[in-house]
Specification:
This protein has 591 residues and is mainly β. Helices cover 2% and strands 45% of the residues. The protein has two helices and 38 strands. The radius of gyration is 26 Å and the shape is globular.
Length: 591
């Protein structure tokens, strides 16, 4: 081992389930006298400073580990002259893929790799991100490539003069899968550096033997909203309320523009009306066990909507009512299909306000009157491209309504559909997230009766580029009432909570997540206030001037949110104390 390597202390790690990696001797090839690359060590279940010997000992990598350091990393060090256009890939042999019992595509869904960059000292925080992707080769082997080439500047840091920077690859795998022995090779190259020979790599993946179903990465096909279900008149189901502890099965495939096959998830706006008691509804995949999650919370006599993303199994989804009886309405605004046929999502770094009729933002300073539609320009604003946008995700808030009414969000220039997104009550502020197709860069917001102020905050958009969606079904990732997600106790005024790094244990991988689809619920409300949901970055993320949920004393309310989530999600409560719950419907990744 080169003397400079002995000065670098890799992080100690912990974890259950393991992978093992074995490789060749350190690479030491130079294009110039001082220009050397090193495929160095990694500490995984090894004593501190016990440097890894590639040819003699296996490298232990925890499966399903958290990204806080409890995972192995293979570090490649760059000499003081730096390197331009650095490239990295890891290939799993076709034979190993076959012996794993998975297809290359299935295996790729179970292995997650992060690329991480650091300076020469090894002290600066190393940001890990989704800078690579898997691809299947013609011979059936599987290759992970670093997408964005990395430049390492020249440097001469005292005590670390042999290397100007380092690139790590960190490997994690879904803990619930079949064990497999994977052989492959790792390759690193850079302009101005002598070509490095590929190094052997051995991954002994140890799972628990369960063959879990990890959904296919999918893209969105937005639709003009259409009604799929209304138990008040027999649309899509029997004309009858859904009773206590009862589940309604809704056929979604083959209806309202949704294809009969090839649908991985649907985007629904579900409305509960005429309830006989306080209750909740859970939307989940047909044929699966009902999860400990909720999609919609409502109280006696109220009409409450909420948008949900639900995985589809056998063309159907389930809607469960807890207590009492209630009429349910479901309007569809899009579906996800495996592959790249649809649109990809780009989450904005910070949500932005596009519309506020109270002060003239995005439209005249005036309430939207009865039987009137407001046209909102979305393309070319707040980081949204001027062209090529197929749909946007908006959080629409109705405030100061003068009458009971509803609001419908729909594409500009098309006939208004028989659907609704928000239901209004006088003197009540109501938010709801909507996915709206964009036509000519615009969307429409229609108010039925009375007049109302409308607010719209954008969190992201769909286009030909961006991230693909992996539906997971509702999974509880945060609950301040019992400490799920790392926070216990109500969130106080001006304080932030929220799940940190995403974990395999919550159905989301530890690396590669660009955004997450959440259903956020607040309860135990003492004072009228609002909650802001926004993404967490490597550095402290500024809080946007937007809102996600509005609530009054005694409320239990929910709303969908789709924030950028590279390093977790922040929830900020603005007055008094509230309990916050979050269920994940899926995540977005570079794919």
């Amino acid at each position: 081992m080169h003397k400079s390597m002995k000065r670098w202390k890799a992080a100690a790690v912990i974890g259950a389930g393991t992978m093992a990696i074995a490789g060749a001797l350190p690479l030491q090839a130079a294009a110039a006298a001082d220009q050397t690359l090193y495929l160095t060590d990694s500490q995984c279940d090894q004593p501190w400073n016990n440097w890894f010997k590639w040819a003699e000992q296996p490298l232990q990598v925890p499966a399903g580990a958290a990204p806080s350091g409890a995972m192995c990393r293979v570090a490649i060090s760059v000499g003081p002259q730096g390197a331009k256009n650095a490239r990295l890939n890891l290939t799993i042999s076709a034979q190993s893929v076959t012996e794993s019992g998975y297809s290359p595509h299935e295996l790729a869904k179970r292995l997650v790799i992060a690329s991480c960059f650091g300076d020469a000292s090894g002290i600066t925080a190393i940001p890990c991100h989704d800078g690579g992707h898997w691809s299947v080769n013609d011979d059936g082997s599987l290759t992970w490539d670093l997408i964005a080439p990395m430049d390492f500047p020249s440097a001469d840091v005292a005590g670390w003069e042999q290397r100007a920077g380092q690139v790590d690859i960190r490997i994690s795998g879904a803990p619930s899968t079949k064990s497999a022995l994977l052989r492959g090779r790792i390759q690193f190259s850079a302009d101005g550096v002598a070509e490095q020979p590929a190094s052997a790599i051995l991954i002994n993946y140890t799972g628990n033997g369960a063959d879990i179903d990890i959904a296919d990465a999918s893209t969105l096909v937005p639709l003009t909203p259409a009604r799929l279900l209304d138990t008040r008149d027999g649309t899509g189901a029997a004309r009858a309320k859904v009773g206590p502890d009862s589940t309604l099965t809704l056929q979604v495939a083959g209806r309202a523009g949704v294809p009969a096959e090839g649908v991985s998830a649907v985007v629904l706006n579900i409305t509960a009306t005429n309830p006989t008691g306080d209750s909740y509804v859970t939307a989940y995949p047909h044929g699966r066990s009902r999860p400990s999650a909720s999609s919609l919370n409502f109280t006696l006599g109220k009409t409450v909507p909420n948008q949900v993303v639900v995985p589809v199994v056998d063309g159907k989804v389930n809607l469960y009512n807890h207590v009492g009886s209630v009429d349910l309405i479901a309007d569809i605004s899009g579906y996800y299909t495996p592959g790249t046929a649809g649109s990809r999502y780009t989450a904005l770094a910070t949500p932005s306000r596009l519309l506020d009729t109270r002060n003239g933002t995005g439209a005249p300073r005036a309430k939207v009157g009865p039987d009137s539609a407001l046209t909102l320009q979305v393309a070319g604003r707040a980081g949204v491209p001027a062209e090529g946008v197929s749909a946007v995700i908006l959080n629409v808030t109705a405030t100061n309504p003068t009458d009971e009414s509803y609001v419908t969000a729909y594409p500009h220039g098309v006939r208004r559909p028989t659907a609704s997104n928000l239901n209004l009550t006088p003197r009540k502020t109501v938010p709801n997230q909507v996915v709206v197709p964009v036509v000519d860069g615009k969307v429409n917001l229609y108010n039925h009766v009375g007049s109302v102020d409308l607010i719209a905050d954008i969190s992201g958009y769909y286009s030909a580029t961006g991230s693909v969606f992996v539906p997971t079904g509702p999974t509880r990732v945060y609950d301040t009432r019992n400490g799920i997600g790392g926070s216990f106790g109500e969130i106080g005024p001006g304080h932030q909570g929220g799940p940190g790094f995403i974990l395999w244990s919550n159905g989301l991988p530890p690396y590669g997540v660009t955004a997450v689809a959440l259903n956020v619920t607040v309860t135990d409300v003492h004072t009228s206030s609002f909650l802001t949901v926004f993404g967490r970055g490597l550095a402290e993320s500024p809080e946007p001037a937007t809102s996600t949920l509005n609530y009054d004393p005694g409320d239990t309310v929910a709303n969908a949110a789709t924030p950028r989530a590279n390093y977790g999600v922040n929830f900020t409560n603005h007055q008094n104390y509230v309990s916050v719950i979050a269920d994940a419907a899926g995540y977005f990744t570079a794919g």
